[in-house]
Amino acid sequence: MASILGGITSSHIPAVGNAIAEGKTQEPYWKRFFDGYEPAKAWLDAVKPDVLIVVYNDHGLNFFLDKVPTFALGCADVYENADEGWGLKPVAPFTGDAEFSWHLAESLVEQEFDICTCQEMKVDHGFVNPIRALYGNREEGSGDSWPIKTIPLAVNTVQHPVPSAARCLKLGQALGKAIESYPEDLRVVILGTGGMSHQLQGERAGLINVDFDLECMERIISEPEWMTQFSNAEIMAQAGTEGIETIMWLVMRGALADDAKLIHKHYHVPISNTGAGVLVLENERLSY
Ligand code: DHB
Ligand code: FE
């Protein structure tokens, strides 16, 4: 049976991709931020997952505002990145696992999550940059390939109405059941991306709320239901309009055991416009 080894969280800031591609990770502005990924890389090295399920939001590369699914699952064997501005060079294509994706889709729909299934799906910085931060860069055309299979799970955090924190936590619980009912012996890690507090537009552009970020990180570790008391408007009032992305961490958390163990926690602010948090949580149900 497939097993969930644990979960990781990461922001997905475009400038992080540039810093990696341009070899700036050890410069003073970036060093402490990237140091926060070292324990996550070491953990991945130790647990050796076969597949990463990456929960992220598309920012207009694959879905534009004319058609935005609330939840969309990649069901392909390959996912391409493309020029999305920001000066980011596209990275090498990602290998998926369509068979596993279709199992997840069937199980999620059975559990009343009527997701959109995508047999073609371009992945943007929301998906690419956390993987770059954990595995390094693989530029398109370089001949390099990614060392792990990946499955994109896109959550709409861009075009309102956006799903609630409570709905995201429930999606995670359903995703956990879907993964663990797959008959193949796959080792799975879930990556929850986005957040933490940031607002890129309007009068409050530049808003960062360190206290709210730190409280969210603490609660997501051991009491993720805490976040579900807030409406999206309340989360955005605290964390900024784009800070709503943090609800995607709840999809990761919901898929893990209630007593998942904290392996690593790191917070750095500001990076670009954002408060950036890294968590590594290990599923205690497993031994390896
Ligand atoms: C930034 C953060 C994001 O999540 C994003 O999608 C774009 C930009 C930033 O901090 O600059
Ligand atoms: Fe974003």
From TrEMBL:
Q: Pfam families under this entry?
A: LigB
Every copy of the Extradiol ring-cleavage dioxygenase class III enzyme subunit B domain together lies at 8-275
Q: Which Gene3D superfamilies match?
A: LigB-like
What GO molecular function terms would the record report? Answer: ferrous iron binding; oxidoreductase activity, acting on single donors with incorporation of molecular oxygen, incorporation of two atoms of oxygen
Note the SUPFAM superfamilies from the entry. LigB-like (SSF53213)
Output the InterPro entries linked to this UniProt entry.
Xdiol_dOase_suB (IPR004183)
The identity of this protein, by name, is Protocatechuate 3,4-dioxygenase
Report the source organism. Pseudomaricurvus hydrocarbonicus
Could you tell me which NCBIfam families the record lists for this protein? PRK13364.1, PRK13365.1, PRK13366.1
| Residues passing through the membrane, by range | none
